[in-house]
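Blinded run. Sample ID left blank on purpose so nobody reads anything into the name before looking at the predicted structure. Input follows.
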Amino acid sequence: MVDGWTVPGFSHERELGGGASGRVMRAVDDQTGTKVAIKYLDGALMADEAFLVQFRAASRNLSQLEDPNVVDFYDFVESADGTAIVMQWVEGVSLRRVLAAQGPTGPLAALSVLGGVLLGLAAAHDRDVVHGALRPANVLVDTGGNAQLTDFATAAAGTEVRSGAQYAAPELWRGEPATVATDLYAATAVFYECLTGRPPYAGRNMARLHREADIPADEVPGPLRGLVRQGLAKDPEERPKSAADFLGALEDAAVSAYGPSWEAQGRGRLTELAAQAALQPEPPKPKPARGSGRNQVVADKSGGSRKRWLVAAVAVLVIAGAGAAAATLLKKDDKNAPPEPTPAQSSSPQPALPIGGVDPAPLVAQIDQAVGRASGAAFSYQQTGCCGFPVSGRGTFGPGQDGRPAYSMTLAGTGPARKPVHAVIVQDRLYVRVGKNWRASALGGHGYPGAAEQVRQGGSVANLTALLRSATKLKQSGSIYEGEAPAATLAQVPGVGPLYARMAQATGAQQIAFAVKLDADHRPVKFWVRAGPEKGRNQIQHGSYSKWGPKPTIKAPR
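Blinded prediction complete.
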């Protein structure tokens, strides 16, 4: 609140905290009952017309940003009595509280934090929004261990070092504007604090330390020193060029050092730390760091000269996002590789085999037979990347009432479909549990019906056999089949064609790369699919199957 003023239409519940830019209250929308967080901006910001002009522009972009690692921005409210930001209320605690209560998080949880932070930054940078003053206080850890960013662009130009001196890049101390590079520096400083329990620099002359002191990489575990050196480079040109590039480096380091399950372990540990921190009293606000060196007011950083940065589309939170990395992960525990399929016998001329020498026809036949005998399985599916349609599903599939596979799963997408729900797909209908009741709708379109259609198409065995059947390149390495298929050919395949048409249109890809792992009975175990380059504008599908065997018929709920 500012001098008693509150945003109309909301009832306040309690104060959540405050900082240099203002106070934050938890409130309830009087009309819908939705809980929100409202930040009442400090009077100095309200009086800063240059800041308001800049933030109005940023708020338009933030209102269109939907990403699991960014707190939803609902509204920017201005009146003669006050100014406030209405945003999503996240059930969880700040990273500052986790560090104050628990100390260092350990390397796996720290990597999980950095991955989430970089994903959030990538999504914001793609919309030309720079955070400007990233620090642990504006990284929220929800109850699922997911790191979410808040308070984008709330530091007036030229004041960024006052908002987070211990995380401010050298160029900010020279009075230069906040950029993608300064955000990556701050993210690395936060990562360093997660690893060691303290920021990389502390002392009486913060400006000199950030500009001149050696990077303290030797204080962190050996496999992670390269990430710290890259992110804390004094020269912004020597830092990663984008959050997407940094995500790729993070994934490579994490998989090499801790194996492909690093993220699941890290997220689990972060969930534990956040739950423990929530039971502790709120820590006192840190004292402002002393610093020297001028931090001048600079020109508006939202001008058109700044390059747009692409959203990362590596599947950082679950599986590697490059072809070689995917093949490496799928090859793990490859002791029960299926035998190579027997070539079909025919006296007629045979079509040319794909580059790599594997004939897909008998392989597809063996997969179809094996899957038909099993009738169902547990599955997981996730689609991530640029271009705005990530989705995930996890559950089981089995025979439906019409003979086609039906699904029972936990489903989540983007926008209003972000919240995970219990869903059932039977025939061409989606059933979503709302409270004690089920709500039915046709598949396709937006929201949960659109997300469900993506999961059904991408997570189906028919998707994998379509890739194999259409392959122009296909090679075998143990139980792994790697290949490429033309996007135009896949776009014509019944059932999965619309999925690949959208992926190709969004990424400009002409070839779809893929890897499929089979068990000894030729049933799929894992798969990975990419449209677009390894780094940059791409779309990735990945998933797994387990517990193959007879399954009861999945019926439409009543």
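Unblinding after everyone has recorded impressions. The chain has three domains: 10-87, 91-278, 328-546.
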